[in-house]
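Hi again,

Forgot to attach this to my earlier email, sorry! This is the prediction with zinc ion bound. I've pasted everything inline since the attachment limit keeps bouncing my files.
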Amino acid sequence: MLKRCVTCGDPFDGASNRAKYCSAECRSNRSNGAAREPVGAVSAATRVELEQAQASGAAAQVALVLAARLDDATTPASALPALARQLGAAIDRACAIVEGGKRSHIDDLLEELLHG
Ligand SMILES: [Zn+2]
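Structure tokens for the complex follow:
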């Protein structure tokens, strides 16, 4: 019978009345407490921004880690504003490194990750 996945909303052919998820991925997203929004929205936007600036390297990686934490539904809401600020700074730095050809201050960035 045709059912709707409770995580992503996609229709799927449920083998039993108890089937609720279209895939193992959706089941695990749900049991991890993930929200209904598409997973990785912030990560996707961050990737686009880094790609547009052709930024790569350590600062870009830090930006992606921060983005993943923002996407993670288990991250406490109180931590989001600080993470968002750090992500903005990391993207700025990743892009500035490309423009200025400077080395990244990876220690500063990691400090922010550890204590942010
Ligand atoms: Zn699904």
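The longest helix spans residues 80-100. Residues 41-115 form one domain.

That should be everything now.

G.
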